[in-house]
Amino acid sequence: MPGHKPQAPFTLAIDIGGTGLKASVLDATGAMVADRVVVKTTYPCPPSKMIDDLAALVAPLPPADRVSAGFPGMVRNGLVLSAPHFVTLHGPGTTIDPGLVKQWAAFDLAGALAARLGKPTRVANDADIQGAAVVKGKGLELVITLGTGVGTAFFYDGRLLPHLEFAHHPFLKGDTYNEQIGDAARKEIGNQRWNKRVRKAVATFRALSFFDHCYIGGGNAKKIHGTLGSDVSMVDNAAGILGGIRLWDESHIAV
Question: What domains does the chain contain, in order, with CATH numbers?
């Protein structure tokens, strides 16, 4: 931003995805002080490889005081409780490897990144972090991320509520949200039918939660046609990184 003088502390923000890994450094105001770096996620991807790949990804970036990372699975206290993409042999939707399941179970991702990068580190679900960047702090707000899989996060008056993995809950015909509106389904059925499913998913969440506002982000948000209602907004996929600074703001998110 022209004329903007970067302000400390600086946060290395990492967005871990099933198809790509992204990172940048943010200043205290949330402004990026370096262009995003991006690489494809490769498989199989045990925790040790993930740490190596992330260390290589962020090596060219300017130094930071702390690290935040968004992870596409259930995370609690920095520990990975589920890693649906990374327990597969060849990526999302492929064969699950019991050995990878064991390696990822309760893996201390925050601790491993802190040790490797030499900075204090916090890790949370990626939808939670994206939501922290976009919610307005008014009433019940739902964030849905549409990418390789489906992510959700709920905030009440700006405070993150306990994470629930709605993506793995039955949605249509016995299939989960991931199976019905994830990227594999979109590619299989085409954008038109996928859009109808997304509308049904939003309507289901509206009936379930009576949200005051819903924000939809992720790489596939741009493939949604038309409006989903006055209580639904599209948000930039960059929020997955920009929310990283909020991970250190105790008034918004607790990990």
Answer: 11-127 (3.30.420.40), 136-235 (3.30.420.40)
